[in-house]
Amino acid sequence: MTDNETRELFHLLNQRVRMITKEMNTVLSDHGLYHSQWSIIFCLNQFGPMTQTAVWKYLNVEAPTVTRTLSRMEKNGWTIRKHGADKRERLIELTEAAKEKFTAVNKAVAQAEKEMAQLLSSEEIQQLQHLLRKLATTEGE
Amino acid sequence: MTDNETRELFHLLNQRVRMITKEMNTVLSDHGLYHSQWSIIFCLNQFGPMTQTAVWKYLNVEAPTVTRTLSRMEKNGWTIRKHGADKRERLIELTEAAKEKFTAVNKAVAQAEKEMAQLLSSEEIQQLQHLLRKLATTEGE
DNA sequence: ATGAATTAGTTACCCAGGTAAATAAATTGA
DNA sequence: TCAATTTATTTACCTGGGTAACTAATTCAT
Fold first, then answer.
1. Where are any strands of DSSP class E within A2-138?
2. Contacts B140 to A, Cβ<8 Å
């Protein structure tokens, strides 16, 4: 019985994340962005210029994923990549245009997230976070 | 403050699902499968032969996604597509080879899921399901 | 000091999700 | 009946996740 509960849980997780991503993409399309691109912009806004490695480690994705997304973002004028003191690494920063648009996009995203979480109370959101953190945790998170 | 909690929640959700999918893919790679292919096999095993539309509606994905995955699965000998009475639709069923391998793969998947959920009690799993169902729910389901 | 190991990033190639538009078969309606 | 609409599936093309293998720069160890 627990096998089925667990299976159902993972199925549900998959579905929700797809729904959320889809909704985010439609909201962001008004601003010429995709959800993964937005997550990088949000990260850069919060921490300031950072290396690609810092980005993919923070977002918990692999390096090639970030390389690809950043090259699209650079092409679309959201970010610039500069070579740092260590010539291997590249420092990523937001363009002026990106900084200007940030507030508006952030507002739209926050609104969409709020709507999607509207059925949950603040306590439930925290509990959901707590339970998710206990799921599929190998060690350091 | 709730804005940030919500944002953190969605971030966490994304990460967990990626970790889970990644782990599933490594487990399934021993059997020559990917997680999406497995979810179709599981579905067909449970419900018997069904149309593609029934599959994508059940899995909550778009039709082209299923078309693509099924054509790979057919090429690899997991499924066959037959034309039904209604000549537009295609009935999908598992091959004999797929049926034979099902038990072994199912066991491996259940074991992996169990490990990933090991930190959660049965009650917590149910609660997690409950909270996820309340998230991003537009209406039906 | 220099050769070996590590690290940062890229490239090539998978699978999986999406949308938009096309095709073909069935259904509806005047 | 037969044109218009709907339905099932496919095709083409996009983003985004992954791995494996590569280059180039740096660090480590002898």
1. 50-51, 79-83, 90-94
2. none
Task: Please check the confidence at residue B36 and state whether its pLDDT lies above 50.
Answer: yes
Token couple for B71: 């054509």
pLDDT tens, position by position, B63-94: 999 999 999 999 999 999 999 899 999 999 99
Contacts of A58 (CB under 8 A, 6+ apart): A43, A47, A50
Which residues sit opposite B91 in a β-bridge? B51, B82
Is the predicted pLDDT of residue B141 greater than 50, yes or no?
no
Strands of the A90-94 sheet, one edge to the other: A50-51, A90-94, A79-83
| Of A62, A16, A13, A11, residue with least CA distance to A36 | A62
Dump pLDDT digits (tens) for B11-34: 999 999 999 999 999 999 999 999
Helix (H, G, I), strand (E, B) or coil at A51: strand
Least-confidence region, from A103-107, B3-7, B118-122: B3-7
pLDDT of residue B138: 63
* B2-133 topology per CATH: Arc Repressor Mutant, subunit A (1.10.10)
Q: Helices A2-29 and B2-29 meet at what angle, rounded to 10?
A: 120
Count of CB atoms within 10 A of residue A41's CB? Answer: 21
Hey, how many other C-beta atoms are within 10 angstroms of the C-beta on B136?
24
- Protein CA at A141 to nucleotide C1' at D30, angstroms: 37
Inter-chain CB proximity B131 and A126 less than 8 Å: no
Nearest nt (C1') from B76 Cα = C15
